[in-house]
Write a structure and sequence with these properties.
The chain has 11 helices and 35 strands. Helix 5 (about 225-245) runs parallel beside helix 6 and helix 10 runs parallel beside helix 11 (about 465-475). The chain has 3 domains: about 10-150, Chondroitinase Ac, Chain A, domain 3 (Sandwich), CATH 2.60.220; about 160-355 and about 430-475, Alpha-Beta Barrel (TIM Barrel), CATH 3.20.20.80; about 360-410 and about 485-540, Immunoglobulin-like. It is about 25% helix and about 35% strand. The chain is an alpha/beta fold. Residues about 1-45 and about 50-60 have low confidence and may be disordered.
Length: about 550
Amino acid sequence: MQEPGPFEHVLQTDTSPTRDRAAAIIVAAGIVLGLFMLLLVLPPISILDNGEDDTSAQGPVTATARDQMPPVPSGLEAVSALYDLQSTEPVNRAATVGVPLTSTQEATAELFLYTYQDDAWHEVGTATVVAEGEAASGDVDPLPSNVAVFRRGEVSRSVSGSLPPNGEVDEGALATLTTLNAQGYTLNDDGSIGGGLGSLPDNLAVALVPTIRVTDAAVLGSILSSSEGRTAHIDAIVALVSDNSYSGVDLDYRAMDAQDGDDFVSFVAALSERLQETERVLTMTLPAPLRQGTDWDTRGFDWDRLAPLVDTIKVTPDSAPGTSYATLNDAVAYLVPRVGASKLFITVETLSREQSTEGVRALTLTEALTLASTPAIQGETPVEASASVTAYAQNLSEESGGGPLRWDDTGKAVTFMYTGGGGSRSVWFANAFSESFKLDIAQRYQLGGVAIEDVSNATRDSNVVAAVSGFASSGDVELVQPHGNLLLPHWTVSGGTVEPETGASVTWQAPDEPGDYTLTLIVSDGAIRLGQELQLSVGP
């Protein structure tokens, strides 16, 4: 005889014509009590007969949490995973569902049950908080094929910004920030804190939460591996925060070896408890999980256990520049149903990137445009009067092994490639265009905020802060792809003519008169124009 499924005993309806009234009362009471029990005992979701008389076919129901959550409706925040419900037989009836939550909710929280059908969300009922805030229960009619719990989003649009060691903070960025993460502190071998912060503006109007950054996995592993080491490090952090009246501390321990994940959770749990005693915040930067086939590589960081211990997690794309948008988009969809949206901050970049066989290096937007705007000519100078000379963009023309400035729709950024030391190199621009697509992720998933990679004066040229400021003040994101014509190189010359005036390679018709002339190559990322000059001599 086949064993009943885990939900069969609560879904099966008794259709016999006569039932003992007292027994019915006992069964009804048992259902009410059973609701609470099933929420705690039958993972990951419970479904109960709502008491209506229905003879529809029913069967055992199982629930599976999806790996990723579709973007949530505007103004709402997911507080559970999206569960697919499967049954061996149709369950065409009303039911009461109990859903585990990703974050503890207040007893008075206003919650809603939603189902995702035909690429759209549909509300199917309201829910109440049960199991001491760890789950929600509500009635649905009929039982949908999937279910998730949402609450109304609290639109705070918090913004944190990182300041590199000895960097000078951009005053314009300060007006947008709610938290400044000044860098400069490091980890010593004995667990004490080394380094220090550079000069900061007086009378900061934002919370100062300095970052401790670890780059040596072996040192960190040694400290995390023992209770004594963790305690010494925690004592040092608490003293640092207390002695300097900081609002809290930010941990950038991405260098951690994956095998130290459990010890890291123990360390964070103890540190969180100590900081809460003085009402200090604890935030951290973690690498975005990477999809590996059907699995996810979290590099040893246990998001499910870490999220309840901290106030904010800044998700950063530690991946190739051309894949950073896709990495973040996938990672957020994966993380929201597991840890909720309110604690997640998406990282927007203010530094462009160059990728080569040597690795990835950061560039300011001006440096990236400078690479693209290097002019050259074929042949030697001086040139003869009235001669036709080929002028070209040294790093953009095909003849020199380069490629045009273009918008890459996968990477959501302007990019170009050129041939340099070690072979082919690709450059990816970080600007208001590229980073607005990341802000759109924060908007679609109603994330808790945004983290700006670098808020020093050195990155002002990216104009990313302006895009973040607009999002923080209004919640609006303008998605624009630079038009192709804006990305075409433009040429000017102080004597003679250039044909055509745009393109990676043009012809300069030298003037009849000998002398010195200036050829200028101007390029743009779609908003900012930058030119470089080449001095040319025309002989008699």
